[in-house]
TrEMBL record:
It catalyses: NAD(+) + NADPH + H(+)(in) = NADH + NADP(+) + H(+)(out). Residues 361-412 are annotated as: Disordered. Pfam families: AlaDh_PNT_C, AlaDh_PNT_N. This is proton-translocating NAD(P)(+) transhydrogenase. Residues 378-390 have a biased composition (Pro residues). It comes from the Bacteria. It is an enzyme of class 7 (translocase). PANTHER family: NAD(P) TRANSHYDROGENASE (PTHR10160), PROTON-TRANSLOCATING NAD(P)(+) TRANSHYDROGENASE (PTHR10160:SF19). InterPro entries: AlaDH/PNT_N, AlaDH/PNT_NAD(H)-bd, NAD(P)-bd_dom_sf.
């Protein structure tokens, strides 16, 4: 059973350089009966030119590629035109961010496209290999410290010279999810004195395991799904009071806080920025969601009082080669759940990973939260039927001599 997969080239407008399929992953998936077609030049920006792919066909005609595909792979949300060119019943795998792209979600529903949105992969142990948000955040956290080092007027490690010693820089990481922990680890490896803060107290041990001090504010804002909830006004004031001194002492701050589907929480205000030391740098990884800092401008580097605030967007794309490798492997593990060599394409929607990642299927929006946000009047999907239970065949009653022997055994 051959499954046809087409891979899109990301559009240049957003500066996206990643690709959804790398050569090594294509080779690993081929034994499942998959044939691959890619848009010409899809991997060039991420250092995977067309010639590095084996047994993959290339075409510049995007609409023709998706019209013939059973599965379409992408990094960023595709255009409405691309979705409308897909055949009913086909599968799309990409980052979608449905709340921000309601028209796209409706087009997927109306076109009867099954969409697996990579940002919806459940954050459970069994799905870790498919968790694209985490794989990309790891690279963003690493690169954030390097960007900070480039913008700082001083070095990160302590250094002893013939004319005296240079003190190590003080680095504060705010938001200890995957990106934040990687930032702490990177800053520590580069020789900085590190501190970490998060509204979830359970992150204290993780910060300390990386050699960082934990800034305890006495506020617990643990939310669902591994994310932090929004703070109340009273909690915000308590946190602000506890953090202000740490912010003022820092040479470099990396902020990573995010609340899914909502504006990035404000962690640092203008008054706190004004109190920072001259030459201090903030790398705001929440810039795309509105920024964790007052004064952040997405995609720009600005000077606010004594502080340089960098608001990078799409940081994983800056490390496109390895970001593509990790993302492609995330997709590979998802594909291995929905494609088998014997059955071909057969996703099991009773599986919590498959159902949790699904955004649309069978002409419905299957994610409750996004359905409510995009189209509250859209009907809810029917509950998936459980897989059939096949009872073992009944053993026929013995006859003849065997029946007599069976009777004797029972009598014993």
């Amino acid at each position: 059973m051959t499954v046809k997969i087409s891979v899109l080239k990301e559009r240049d407008e957003g500066g996206e350089r990643r690709v959804a399929l790398i050569p090594q992953v294509a080779e690993k998936l081929a034994p499942l009966g998959i044939t691959f077609a890619m848009e010409t030049g899809a991997g060039v920006a991420s250092s995977y030119p067309d010639g590095t792919y084996k047994d993959v066909t290339f075409s510049p005609d995007r609409n023709a590629l998706v019209a013939d595909a059973d599965i379409v792979l992408a990094v960023q949300p595709p255009t409405l035109e691309t979705v409308r060119a897909m055949k009913p019943g086909a599968i799309l795998i990409a980052f979608i961010y449905g709340r921000n792209n309601p028209d796209l979600v409706k087009a997927l529903r109306d076109g009867k496209i099954t969409c697996f949105a990579m940002e919806l992969v459940p954050r459970i142990s069994r799905a870790q290999a498919m968790d694209a948000l985490s794989s990309q955040a790891t690279l963003a956290g690493y690169y954030a410290v390097l960007m900070g080092a480039v913008h700082m007027p001083k070095i990160l490690p302590m250094m002893t010279t013939a004319v005296g010693s240079l003190r190590a820089a003080q680095v504060l990481v705010m938001g200890l999810g995957v990106a934040g922990l990687q930032s702490l680890a990177t800053a520590k490896r580069l020789g900085a004195i590190t501190e970490g803060y998060d509204v979830r107290p359970e992150s204290k041990e993780e910060a300390q395991s990386l050699g960082a001090k934990f800034v305890d504010t006495g506020v617990d804002a643990t939310g669902q799904g591994g994310y932090a909830r929004e703070l109340t006004d009273d909690e915000k004031q308590k946190v602000r009071k506890a953090l202000s001194d740490h912010i003022a002492r820092s040479d470099l701050i990396v902020t990573t806080a995010a609340v899914p589907g909502k504006r990035a929480p404000r962690l640092i205000d203008a008054e706190q920025i004004k109190a920072m030391k001259p030459g201090a740098v903030i790398i705001d990884l929440g810039a795309e969601g509105g920024g964790n800092c007052e004064g952040t401008q997405a995609g720009q580097t600005v000077q606010v009082g004594p502080t340089t605030i960098v608001g990078p967007v799409n940081v994983p794309s800056m490390l496109a080669e390895q970001a593509s490798e990790l993302y492609s492997k995330n997709i590979m593990h998802l594909l291995q759940q929905i494609i088998t060599k014997d059955k071909g394409l057969a996703p099991d929607f009773t599986d919590e990973v498959i159902s949790g990642t699904a955004l649309t299927h069978g002409g419905t929006i299957t994610n409750d939260g996004i359905r409510t946000a995009v189209d509250p009047n859209s009907p809810a999907p029917p509950a998936p039927a459980p897989p059939p239970v096949i009872a073992p065949a009944a053993t026929p009653a013995p006859t003849g001599p065997a029946a007599n022997d069976a009777g004797k055994e029972t009598a014993k």
